[in-house]
Structure formats: C-alpha cells, structure tokens
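Structure (tokenized):
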C-alpha cells in the first residue's frame, strides 16, 4: 500500500509580500483516502530557504519582507547624537545670551527706579536728618541723589546734609544705602554727551565739543523743584546737560546704555 501526496504551488500577493502557499490536491493511500490528522503529518516541500515542515509564518519561520526586524547602525547612532548635541548647544547659547541681557536690563531698571525715587523725595521736601534724627540746619541743605563711579559694581543713594549737593561717603550723615548689581555687571563708562543746538549750540559742558569720560558722578535733585545737577569728577564737570551711563556684563562683554538729562527731569532711557 503506497501513499501519494501531490502539492500544487500557488503565488498570491498579500499585504505587499509574496507568500508561497501550497494546496493539497489529492492525498491517498492506495484506494483509501488519508484522514485529516494523517494528512497534517505530511511535510510540505522546502522553498525559499524555509525548512520542510515550517510553513511561511508558522512556528520557527524565518522573518522576511517588511516584518523583518532591524536595529540602528553605528553611523545612524552617531548622526542622531550629533543632531541632538547641536540643538542642545544652540538652545544653551540662546539661554545664556538672554540671561546676560536680562542682568544688564535689571541693573539699568533698578538704577532708573532709584533716580525716580530720589527725585520724588526731593520734590516732596522730605526732611534730611542725620543718624540721630536731627534735621539739617545749614543753608540750602536738603535734596537727594545717587553717586556712581566708573568700573564699580554698584552705586550709593545719598542725601545732601551739608548743603553742597555732593556725596560725603558711607561714613557720613549723607549716606543712605548701597546698591549692588548682579554678579559680573559693572559701570563701564560715564560720559558727558554733546548736546548740539538743543541747548544753545556747542557742547553740553564747553565750547570744545568733545565728550569727556569722568571717573565718578553725582546726580543730585534739589529740594521742592527737583532741579537736576550733574556733578562729574576726575576730571570735574558741573555744567553738563546730559550724561550717558554704560553698563557692561564682564562675562559676555555685552553693554547697555541709558542717559540722564537734567532738563528732562533727570531721566531719559
């Protein structure tokens, strides 16, 4: 008694992948047909490297087509790392620039606020007293201002106790408060500005027309009227109408300027 199994190969297109299928045409042993369980034990022929008895997609089948798994190559991994690193570097640089600019802006705004406060004290006639609470009695005393010096990292608020409009130092009755900039910010330049024809022609401070840089400056506001006086030292200038103050961030070397104008109420950003 002989068994005969005949198979027919058919090619079908399924999900963009060619899959070889086999269909049993006839299974018989002599004149008696095989049962379903006996037919299942007959292996299909091997094709495309798939071992006999392991149909495509069955247990132990070799992955092929779009279902084959693959990982990253070393080149792809390095390219991905390079892209991520570049984006991170650009983001960090932008963040640092923003932080440095914000430090300068904060220092400038604080100084402008203090200028407005000192002028307000002067216009309101706020009493000028010493540390013991005794009010000044000398002629023309009163008024408030700020003192700043080139290459320093802050400035001082003061009151005019002796009537000369100038700052007497931290140990005097005129000292009110020391203000400090954020780390790395300093006063880089204090420059008298050439005003041109707006103030009658020529320079703000002399007929020469050049703009001197001074070592220190007192911005003083007279009592009740708030009249502004710009007192520069090293060298000494007191007739100037405008002074430009430049702040610098030493880490980034970025700068920011603002102008004090005595005829515009002392403050001009």
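Design, position by position:
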């Amino acid at each position: 008694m002989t068994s005969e199994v005949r198979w027919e190969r058919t090619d079908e297109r399924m999900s963009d992948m060619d899959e070889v299928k086999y269909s049993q045409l006839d299974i018989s042993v002599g004149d008696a047909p095989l049962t379903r369980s006996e037919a299942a034990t007959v292996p299909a022929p091997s094709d495309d490297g798939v071992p006999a008895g392991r149909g495509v997609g069955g247990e132990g089948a070799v992955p092929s087509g779009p279902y084959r798994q693959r990982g990253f190559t070393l080149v792809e991994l390095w390219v991905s790392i390079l892209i991520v690193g570049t984006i991170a570097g650009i983001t960090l640089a932008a963040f640092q620039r923003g932080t440095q600019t914000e430090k300068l802006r904060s220092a400038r705004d604080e100084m402008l606020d203090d200028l407005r406060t000192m002028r307000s004290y002067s216009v309101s006639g706020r009493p000028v007293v010493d540390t013991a609470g005794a009010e000044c009695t000398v002629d023309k005393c009163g008024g408030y201002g700020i003192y700043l010096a080139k290459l320093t990292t802050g400035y001082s608020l003061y009151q005019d106790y002796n009537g000369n409009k100038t700052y007497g130092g931290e140990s005097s009755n005129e000292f009110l408060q020391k203000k400090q900039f954020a780390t790395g910010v300093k006063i880089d330049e204090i420059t008298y500005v050439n005003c041109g024809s707006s103030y009658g022609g020529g320079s703000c401070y002399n007929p020469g027309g050049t703009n001197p840089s001074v070592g220190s400056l007192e911005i003083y506001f007279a009592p009740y009227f708030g009249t502004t006086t710009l007192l520069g030292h090293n060298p000494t200038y007191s007739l100037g109408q405008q002074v430009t103050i430049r702040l610098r961030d030493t880490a980034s070397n970025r700068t920011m300027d603002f102008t004090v104008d005595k005829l515009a109420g002392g403050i001009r950003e």
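Reviewer-requested clarification: The longest strand covers residues 17-29. The helical segments are 36-40, 74-123.
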